[in-house]
Amino acid sequence: MKTILILSCEHAGNNIPEEYKHLFVQAKEVLLSHRGWDPHSKQIGLELSKNLGSEVYMTETSRLLVECNRSLHNPQLFSEFTENLSLETKEDILKRYYHPYRDRVEEEIRRRMKYSRVLHVSVHSFTPIWEGLKRSTDIGLLFDEKRPDELSLAMGWKTDLEELLPMLQIDLNKPYLGSDDGFTTYLRNQFDSERYLGFEIEVSQKFKGKEMIQEIASALSASLNRIINSSHYS
What we know:
By secondary structure, this protein is α/β, with parallel strands linked by helices. Helix content is 37%, strand content 17%. The model has no long low-confidence stretch (mean pLDDT 95).
């Protein structure tokens, strides 16, 4: 069965719509930090899209307005800047900035799934220091270990990346668990495990230079290309 790659990026920017900017007057530094968005994720997503010929779906609205990588029941759906808004205002934010993005990705996966298996890769980045502790992970591949096809792909992907980027620490389900609440976790509950493979890529934000980010994106592209065109997935 042919495998189609679909890319997404839930934290590609830190934009705040004009009508909600008054809520963030004192939050400029927070918006620029990792709390407001995922630095490098947009660049990596665009590089993967260009290198692999796959469309990348992005939202550049800040996660501090609404968190598009969380389910509706998650208490982190709205940040401290928006959690006290009226129910009507929250529903309007969801209608305008949450549902259109997620529905667009889900509909494209459903459309492609009629004819092929879908490998969905959601691109993220993470802060290298969390609560005072340094994280050793450079690139994390997040997936659901209970899904055999995802586990098999993850093991091979890790080995491939270690050959392409021997100077970096490649980890599975670090710095987060792939089974935690997120867009891919939600989609696993919508689609058959044989038709849908959901992964999150997490790249450390410690890499600042444009050339290093491009090198990482090139390695990710090469490894994904091998996976998609391997006999097991094509």
